[in-house]
Protein: Component of scar regulatory complex
Organism: Dictyostelium purpureum
Amino acid sequence: MSKTNIQKDWEQREFVEDMSINIQKIIDFLNKFDLATKNKLAELNEKLTTLDRQVDYLEASFKTVQSE
């Protein structure tokens, strides 16, 4: 290999290494985003469930008052 070929080879290796690092950073970000999103959706689901139960209770109370 000539000097230019060796230099090109190293440049290509550096490029591949940089791409690998950047892809890993993107993967880490997406994994953290996924976890955060799942947690927030779970919290929202709990709040909606609580509200749904409260509405059911209020509806039942209203029907009881209406029938009296």
